[in-house]
């Protein structure tokens, strides 16, 4: 996320104790003052510039346009001074479970930059105190607290609005996502039990792989606890969309911020199905390009695992994608009525109980699943959809069976 050459927009968001954060950057700063409810809904702390050039941010083209309009309208109504301050109502509490890990640390940094976050709770079984201390020195509004081990998990989750779970072991060369199942399934089960007991109304973002199985595990645990709300449980598949957008932009030499490729199915191998025929803006692909792009998007994680040669998996891009999805959730909670993302959720768009597709997000979670994306598919996409169903069905059933065999703690 490269900084722009334009004058920087400083952030002086008010936090609950009434103090203000120091501006992120010192230069010929220019800013406007507005409330997040009406005007900040498309803003991301990762891109703050007077020019509102958001080419590298989480924002899509429509959101960027809305943000630019907000700046222009407010600046017309204000006296211009040498330095104004953007004030944002940071009001949401976010917990990251697994915050000391390879995904957790960069994710925590990105979340710390969000102007919508008032409190950032970092949890892990070890080594999280140093991460929290490090992040707490960043002059952004959110207050950082660390929580270590099971004894502190309940306090970490108290009154939290969104829980993000990247906890678990990473993939290594030669491993599939299913190889991670036995370890990560138990971790997710334990964490979801705590979520059910301490913040049952929170949005729950599952990153821990295999997502095709860990989301059904989470659903079963929440059902057993009597607090399951399918509208608030999400498998984060945003990385598949991020990769699809990036690879298509590179292949077709189009402006990245304009590109939007819906990705449906699941979050592993052939269950990842980019709908290239639905790409916006419309672009023409040869059959060879469709095949090559689809395979690359499906194997994006393996590409990174092999490139890191045993040193890890896709941590930075996953953290970015998770932060993007979180920012979308916070915008929806904050009242934005035009928030869409792809996610792995309980769904009726196919015969499968869970399916990744575009959803509309609102204050209460999933407001709508966009079934129309599965209409008018190409023959290649139709075959891909049918091919993924068997594998995805097996992964879902594996997760459900695991959860049903386990005893949920009271």
How are the SSEs ordered, and which strands pair?
Blueprint: H1 36-39, H2 61-76, E1 92-97, H3 104-112, E2 117-124, H4 128-136, E3 143-148, H5 153-157, E4 162-165, H6 181-198, E5 203-206, H7 211-225, E6 233-235, H8 238-252, E7 263-265, E8 272-274, H9 287-298, H10 300-308, H11 316-333, E9 339-346, E10 354-362, E11 365-369, H12 379-405
Parallel strand pairs: 1-2, 1-4, 2-3, 4-5, 5-6
Antiparallel strand pairs: 7-8, 9-10, 10-11
Helix pairs in contact: 3-11, 6-7, 7-12, 8-9
Give the helix level as a range of percent.
Answer: 25-40%
Biggest sheet architecture: 6 strands, parallel
Structural class category? alpha/beta
Overall shape: it is globular
Strand order of the largest sheet: 3-2-1-4-5-6
Distance between the termini: 45 Å
Number of helices: 12
The first-level CATH class of the largest domain is given as Alpha Beta
The value of Rg in angstroms is 21 Å
- Poorly predicted runs: 1-57, 66-88
> How many strand segments?
11
Q: Spell the H/E element sequence.
A: HHEHEHEHEHEHEHEEHHHEEEH
- CATH A-level architecture of the largest domain: 3-Layer(aba) Sandwich
Total tally of structural domains: 3
Oligomer: single chain
Strand content: 5-15%
CATH fold descriptor of the largest domain? Rossmann fold
* Overall pLDDT metric: 83
CATH superfamily of the largest domain: NAD(P)-binding Rossmann-like Domain
């Amino acid at each position: 996320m490269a900084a722009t050459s334009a004058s920087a927009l400083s952030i002086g968001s008010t936090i609950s104790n009434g103090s203000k954060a120091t501006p992120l950057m010192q230069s010929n700063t220019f800013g406007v003052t507005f409330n997040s409810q009406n005007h900040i809904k498309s803003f991301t702390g990762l891109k703050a510039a007077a020019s509102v050039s958001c080419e590298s941010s989480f924002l899509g083209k429509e959101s960027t346009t809305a943000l630019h309009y907000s700046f222009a309208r407010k600046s017309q109504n204000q006296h211009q001074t040498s330095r104004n301050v953007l004030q944002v109502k940071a009001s949401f509490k976010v917990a990251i479970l697994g915050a000391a890990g390879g995904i957790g640390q960069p994710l925590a940094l990105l979340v710390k930059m969000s102007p919508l976050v008032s409190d950032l709770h970092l949890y892990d079984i070890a080594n999280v105190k140093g991460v929290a201390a490090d992040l707490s020195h960043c002059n952004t509004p959110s207050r950082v607290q660390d929580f270590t081990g099971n004894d502190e998990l309940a306090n970490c989750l108290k009154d939290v609005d969104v829980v993000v779970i990247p906890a678990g072991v990473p993939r290594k060369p030669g491993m599939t996502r299913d190889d991670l199942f036995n370890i990560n399934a138990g971790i997710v089960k334990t964490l979801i039990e705590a979520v059910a007991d301490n913040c049952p109304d929170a949005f729950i973002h599952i990153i821990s792989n295999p997502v095709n199985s860990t989301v059904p595990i989470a659903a079963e645990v929440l059902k057993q606890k009597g607090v399951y709300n399918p509208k608030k449980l999400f498998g984060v598949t945003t990385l598949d969309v991020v990769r699809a957008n990036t690879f298509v932009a590179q292949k077709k030499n189009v402006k990245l911020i304009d590109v939007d490729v819906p990705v449906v199915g699941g979050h592993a191998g052939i269950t990842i199905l980019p709908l290239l025929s639905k790409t916006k803006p419309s672009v023409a692909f040869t059959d060879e390009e469709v095949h090559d792009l689809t395979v690359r998007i499906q194997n994006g994680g393996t590409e990174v695992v092999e490139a890191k040669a045993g040193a890890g998996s896709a941590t930075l891009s996953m953290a970015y994608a998770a932060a993007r999805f979180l920012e979308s959730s916070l915008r929806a909670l904050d009242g934005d009525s035009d928030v869409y993302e792809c996610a792995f959720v309980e769904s009726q768009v196919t015969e499968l109980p869970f399916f990744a597709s575009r959803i509309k997000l609102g204050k209460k979670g999933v407001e709508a699943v966009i079934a129309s994306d599965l209409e008018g598919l190409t023959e290649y996409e139709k075959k891909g959809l049918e091919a993924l169903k068997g594998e995805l069905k097996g992964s879902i059933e594996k997760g459900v069976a695991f959860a049903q065999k386990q005893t949920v703690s009271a």
